[in-house]
Amino acid sequence: MHLHRYEKIWLMLGAGGLALFIVLLCVNAFAMGMAPPSNMEMIDPEKVTETPPFDKPGLKQVGDNEYDAYMTAFAFGFSPTKMEIPVGATVNFHVTSPDVIHGFQIPETNINFMVLPGHISSATHTFDKPGEYLILCNEYCGAGHQVMATTIIVK
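The line above is the sequence of Cytochrome aa3 subunit 2; the predicted structure tokens follow.
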């Protein structure tokens, strides 16, 4: 079979691009460390409710207008069920799960991550606008998934 010169050039460019993509994928996965987006804190998923600070989930003030929110995502809810913070507060979310994979999303913010059993997922957001912010599970986790939500009230 005879291939035209331009066909050979395009085939070589395509194969070269594919090879470059695979090399970059391998570098990112193995040399850079393939891991969930978090600082890789771990906890025993069977002892989440017994391990501080997740034994008493809620808001803890750590600075001037800065809070740490320790939360658990479980089938089919979040703990705590409601949190109140002042306008302009920065909240550092630390979330884990004792049972299955959940999602953690706050619409209209940049907070969106997965909550894996045994992993402590973390993210930070500053709430500049007053109102109610809904926290949703955006990862299907079972039959009651649609009722899994909690709120943050910014006053």
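Note on the example: The CA atoms of residues 103 and 137 lie 4 Å apart. The chain has two domains: 1-34, 41-154.
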